[in-house]
Write a structure and sequence with these properties.
alpha/beta; 9 strands; single chain; binds copper (II) ion; globular; 146 residues
């Protein structure tokens, strides 16, 4: 009986660690951000890169940096994997933009998407997050939220 309970406990702890690892990694990756729910994903605090035709988002393990970036309509975002894990870029709202699928953003690889229409484009890595937690980012196109 005790042995069975111990086994269950191990499984529960392992599940908790797995579930939490995406969020933990994000916190480590974004120094100075204490909000594990992603305060730095706020649209009105997005890093302002308007005026740049090409903007790079670093994809580390396991966080997008900057997590929130504001660009001009028509500008291109390039995600560059500087980590050791493979990642992907999935729109939080399916169909909002063409995903960067698993296999296209392996370590040292880059992938680009151009955003022509003003709006808020939330995304995540489905390997290390979901639409609402873990490895997430947002591209704000134009003046949305200012
Ligand atoms: Cu990832």
């Amino acid at each position: 009986m005790l042995r069975r309970f111990r086994h269950l406990l191990v499984v529960l702890v392992a599940a908790a660690v797995l579930a939490g690892c995406g969020a933990d990694a994000s916190e480590q990756g974004s120094a100075g951000t204490a909000d594990p729910l992603g305060g730095d994903l706020a649209v009105d605090r997005a890093l302002d890169r308007r005026g740049a035709a090409d903007v790079t988002v670093e994809v580390a393990d396991n966080v997008f940096e900057p997590r929130a970036v504001r660009i001009d309509p028509g500008s291109t975002v390039t995600w560059t994997n500087t980590g050791q894990n493979t990642h992907n870029v999935m729109p939080a709202e399916e169909g909002r933009f063409e995903p960067v699928p698993t296999g296209s953003l392996d370590p040292k690889a880059s992938a680009s998407r151009t955003f022509s229409v003003p709006g808020v484009y939330r995304y995540y890595c489905s390997i290390h997050g979901t639409a609402t937690r873990g490895q997430r980012g947002v591209i704000v196109v134009g003046d949305e939220g200012l």
